[in-house]
Amino acid sequence: MKKVAVVALIALFAAPVARAGDWKSEHPFSPFVQDLTNRGEPPRLGPHYTREEHGLRQATASRTLRIRSPLMNYNGGKIMPTVVSKAIFWGPKWANATFVGDKITGLNAWYAAHNNSNYAKTVNEYTGTNGTVGSTTLVHQGHIVDTSTAAGGGSTSAILAEVCKQVTAGNISPDPSGNGYYPVYSDVPRGNSGYCAWHSSGSCGGKQLQFAFFFNLDGDSACDPVDTVTGHSQGLAALANVTAHEIEEARSDPASPGAWYDSYGAENADKCGWTYNVPYVSFPDGSKWKLQGEWSNAAYTAGKGYPNSSGQRGCIDGH
Amino acid sequence: MRFLRFAALVAAAMSIIPVGAGRCEEPTPRGVGPAMATRSVSLYLGLERSLEDALAGGDREAASALLAEGFEFTSGKKERLGRKEWLDAALAAKKPPVLVRDLNVSETGGVATATFLLDYRPKGGKGPVYSVTDIWDSATRQLRSRRQIEMKSPPPPFDRPTGRE
Predict the structure, then answer these.
(1) Which residues of B are less than 8 Å from A68 in CB distance?
(2) Distance (Å, whole) CA A200 – CA A159
(3) Taking CB atoms and an 8 Å limit, are A40 and B50 in contact across chains?
(4) How many CB atoms neighbour CB B119 within 10 A?
(5) Which residues contact A107 (CB under 8 A, 6 or more apart)?
(6) What is the ipTM of this complex?
(7) Residue B21 touches chain A, beta carbons under 8 Å
(8) Digit-coded pLDDT (tens) for B28-64
């Protein structure tokens, strides 16, 4: 009995320490934020920076702040007050049940539950020529599987052509208000590309629409949020994280001319990329997702956000 | 003497670039938004921007902190400068806003090799574009060397960064 009590006591005190080592103490500006920016391969879980480096990083970041404002600026364009989404899973691997795993089901669930989530509300402060970003009318219309050979992400035209192909085939009816968002999940791995995904806009048959491209991120450590909590497969967790990144950017900066981005051209998700304030974000249906934060001008101005990789406290995740 | 000649060249080159640069044209199709950079591109893009900001802002201390002790700069004109010489020249030059673009990183053996373009063209204007290869110390995040060559046929400018840099 005494032994059991001792083991229980050790477990009680060891658990928070293990958790801290798992996702805390990694961010150079906050012990409570996980920063998965690649600071040397492989990703380090729980690095402890030297005093010199910690000081150097903080000094550099604070000096940079004096030169450029971290706030995003409005550039005169539209935003997305609503979203009508339909996913396209493109490539022959999407016919393979082992490859598909939990990805299609999981991403459909993600888009559906994203509606009216606190996470979606992180973008609501931004306005454009066509109103304010809204989070209560994010309608997901399911998905299409196209097993023809997919393209990689090198050509936006190729991805737009795939979306237009689905429009022509009658599988997509572009939202007449231009708020249709059509993410294309390719089965092509990233290879040496320096990006995981992107979003863009274009038109099919004269109808304006938004679209996005995602590489196959199975086993891709450079685009992996290192989700050890939600129970999703690594591939789904990675796609969910980049899905959040792209759709929140599209909602606040969908088209040309742009709406909201900073002096570097970085959009709300770029500014908080690879930083995580909590182990997971909850959606209204109770599902849990490991998602990066989104930049909020309001949070930064009020000093209420958590710090991004540069130590700028403007990231929020609605948790 | 060599340093003075280099500084004069840099100053002359910079003086013909209109201030107020920043955004360039965008590739088709319209409205290409920034892409989500990988973790290592995200890190080194941040470091490169911090260095350019420090130089543009005349902040020697911040720029110095990002340079390794044995830093060396080489250019296509066979200029070879040490840490202090390059810092002096870079800080003395009146730099217009610059775009760090098309950045790629490979990391191996404790160093990260970042290749990218330094684009000094303002929107609708002219200016130099440099192809740059930087070698960073992966552990200290300090720049060990930079090789920079002015491009004869740079890629078209774009209206705003695509995020693929």
Answers:
(1) 53
(2) 10
(3) no
(4) 26
(5) A87, A143, A185, A236, A239, A240, A243
(6) 0.76
(7) no
(8) 223 345 688 898 898 898 899 889 989 988 999 999 9
